[in-house]
Amino acid sequence: MQADIVNIGLGFLEGFALIISPCVLPILPLILAGSLTGSKKRPLGIMIGFILIFSLFTFLSRKFVQYSGIDLNIVRHISYGMLILLGVTMISTYLTEKFERLTTRLANIGSSFPKVNNPQGGLISGIFFGGLIAIVWTPCAGPILAAVIVQTVIQKTNLMSFLTLIAFGIGVAVPMLAIILFGRQLMARVGFVKGHTVFFRKMLGAVIIISVFFMIYQENGISFVHAGQGNNVPAIELQNGLEKPYPAPSISGIDGWINSEPLKISNLKGKVVLVDFWTYSCINCIRTLPYLKEWYDKYHNDGLVIVGVHTPEFDFEKNFANVKSAVVYDGIKYPVALDSHYITWQNFNNQYWPAHYLIDKKGNVVYIHFGEGDYDVTENNIQYLLNMHAPTITKGNNIEQLNEDQTPETYLGYERAENFSGQEAISKDKTAQYTFPPSLEQNEWALQGSWNIMPDKIISSENNAAIKINFNARKVYIVMGNATNKTIRVNLLLNGKKIEIEKGKDVENSSIDVNKNTIYEALVFTQPRSGILQLTASSPGLEIYTFTFG
């Protein structure tokens, strides 16, 4: 309950801080203009409508996507286009006049609803106006809302999720309401503003357009981070350290420990601590393990403590036995904490796999790195904090280079499925028959035979059920599991032929034997290339979660 209240409080603070973000700029002119007419209650109505509709729209959007199959990225891009069109209209006198004629006709049509459409109205018309603005704004603010949406996902109840969104909306609305009330007083007192309304209208239109392009430029939604190759570090000093180190959050809410008794940050003062957020089916995390294991071997006796905080992406990664098996398989000797309920993840306010937090001997976080890469920088900082001199640093020269045309990670469960291109629509949470299409475009995938599509995975429901994906990559990995108590053989074809030279380490005779939930390496090429990979399950019960590429 306490964590829920903290999340609600964080939602309010995140919303309040959003007033300095450029994503607010496009709607400020709209809200200000809508509040300059009507009674004194209209600004309050606008804010009430904005908060309620924003909260409902965001809360229901995930369910809406699940059951309609509509991509919210498309909705967001449409909203970008609407805002740009609005900005152009405000700049152009000709388009403004046309728009005014159109809205006049619409107003006449809706004249039977005077309380809603009357610009001179009060609370009710303000609520309606604020709700319309919220619908346009919410998709545009997708990247900004990432943190608060994560908070709603990890809440234990729908009520707490909705209250978190309400708190976020109130946080956004409070400073905007102050701006609106100040704007009404300014317009009432300054005659210059009234005499130059055309100029200000065009300026506001330009602000809207510039703000939208800035949002598009800044837009990103990466969860698994790919970082560039680290640079050689010539001197032993703290590299890329935080300007303002802060006390390390606690490691708490842990469901189990591997390789160690329970550890507390407060008991590790005097040690240098590296907290690594990972999950065992994440290929980006797996590629960092050789460096982590080497650092542990080299510096453990000098005072380095590495804690692998295993925060799961899929349900099977919450299973203690599965994680322990992966730890043994990967040869991990340092402590691993199972953060299956995201408590430590929340304590660190983390959002990425993998993520490294380096803590000095005083217990302060002094360096953070998300994703792969910069291994030499991290090792340099470990040595610096350990007061070591004349370092021998492992160069990060074996980092996977990013292929710009590489197929993105492809989730198959309907909650995050994209680029499905079957003959039939996805049937959710039930067994259905599917048919391969005549062809697949790059990054598209399709099913053949009987499958059950679940929120986070697909399950084969008959012998020889198959899946195809058109990919571009140098390596192909598949996260798979087994819902039965016997091994399921998965036969692989690359462009219709058996895999021989290009086979990954888990492929034997162009097939993979799936007997546990983990990540399997299917294909390895010397250079990135395109192809169509087909998987055929020998029997029912094969679980496939995602395709990952490198």
From TrEMBL:
One Pfam family named in its UniProt record: Redoxin
Subcellular location: Cell membrane
Biological process per Gene Ontology, one example term: cytochrome complex assembly
Molecular function GO labels: oxidoreductase activity
Keyword set, alphabetical order: Cell membrane, Cytochrome c-type biogenesis, Membrane, Transmembrane, Transmembrane helix
Residues passing through the membrane, by range: 12-32, 44-65, 77-96, 123-150, 162-187, 199-217
Domain Thioredoxin: 240-387
InterPro entries registered for this protein in UniProt: Cyt_c_assmbl_TM_dom, Redoxin, Thioredoxin-like_sf, Thioredoxin_10, Thioredoxin_domain, Thioredoxin_ResA/DsbE_sf
Name of the protein: Cytochrome c biogenesis protein [Thioredoxin fold]
Record organism: Legionella fallonii LLAP-10
